[in-house]
Amino acid sequence: ELEAGGARECAVSRGEYFCARLMAEFLDAEFVDPANHILLRGNGLVDPVSYERLRSRLADESRMYVMAGFYGRNRQGEITTFSRGGSDISGAIAARAAGAVLYENWTDTSGFLIADPRIVDNPRAIEEISFREVREMAYMGASVFHDEAILPVREAGIPVAIRNTNRPEDAGTRIVPRLSATALTCTEIAGISGLNKATMITVEKSLMNKEIGFGHRLLGIFLQYNISFEHCPSSIDSMSVIVLDNKLRGLDQTVLDDIQRQLEPDHLNIEKDLALIAVVGEGMVRTVGIAAKIFTALAAAHINVRVINQGASEINIIVGVAAGDYEEAVRAIYRAFVPEESPTA
């Protein structure tokens, strides 16, 4: 396998491979090697043919199976690993292939919390959350469940239960296709998550709106260097591109030089040390005053807002603040939506 290519990813996967083989032996179960059944496309996403391959392998319902996680094979036959936390994806693929009625994901936390416990003391637990909400929160930094694990189970309508291996008595969080009426009304938001290292490049040019393809040309510069962007707020004569620092990879000056040469802006500005905070919740679209609560809370905490972005779906509101204000901003927003519980007598 090492001689065939993909040596590093093959080596990385071997710990999981041998652990799963030992567990299968211990449980008197059949070992399933995902390299033989899970096919990954060039973009790292699972090829749908994998579900049928794996379904055939798991056909005997009288047997117990143990499958290794976080890897498969690409079209060249090389072992390819998922990104960090990729065993969540493997479990979701297996759940869909098996036609499961529930995917239980056992981890080291008791489900999702409304905010990061490293920032907010004892944040409230989330009992029920939708696939859409989890996708938004995971993408914006919540690490309980891999954001790419949502797709296989969401397409099949399979709910997910996040449970704590160390505290099996805890209820955990249930991820569902559609929220119950109770979940929609029990809180105005589902959660607060964020990313603390971002950069914003702002291009200003008079009559920008008259130049056909200006935005395409600007984003094409980022594409040229294989840099994906997070958000792209704009006005009539300005356009900003927000990029995570780990995706910018130190190419900021190179990108600025290309923008200056190709687009000839009136002004070009770069703002580093930016933090992005997402306030997420499907119930927000039916609730008046969500944005007002957020910005009132930030103003009361003397935090200046640098970016405001809300998608048409109204499932989240993104605010950008200075990285140094990130944690206090999260705490201020949390206090605005989650009242302090009165101490019991």
Shape: globular
Topology as H/E string? HEHEEEHEEHHEEHEHEEHHEHEEH
Strand order of the largest sheet: 10-11-9-12-14-13
For the record, give the distance between the C-alpha atoms at the N and C termini, rounded to a whole number. Answer: 65 Å
Radius of gyration: 23 Å
CATH architecture of the largest domain: 2-Layer Sandwich
Structural class: alpha+beta
Main pleated-sheet profile: 6 strands, antiparallel
Q: Considering DSSP H and I runs of 4 or more, what fraction of the residues is helical?
A: 25-40%
Return the domain count.
Answer: 3
- Strand residues, percent: 15-25%
The level-1 CATH class of the largest domain: Alpha Beta
Mean pLDDT: 89
With helices defined by DSSP (H or I, 4 residues minimum), what is the helix count? 11
Q: Which key phrases capture this entry?
A:
345 residues, Carbamate kinase, VC0802-like, six-stranded antiparallel beta sheet, 33% helix
Helices, strands, pairings?
Blueprint: H1 7-27, E1 30-32, H2 49-57, E2 65-67, E3 71-73, E4 79-81, H3 87-98, E5 103-107, E6 128-130, H4 131-139, H5 150-156, E7 160-164, E8 173-176, H6 181-186, E9 191-204, H7 214-224, E10 234-235, E11 238-244, H8 245-248, H9 252-263, E12 267-280, H10 290-300, E13 307-310, E14 316-322, H11 326-337
Parallel strand pairs: 1-2, 5-7, 6-8
Antiparallel strand pairs: 3-4, 7-8, 9-11, 9-12, 10-11, 12-14, 13-14
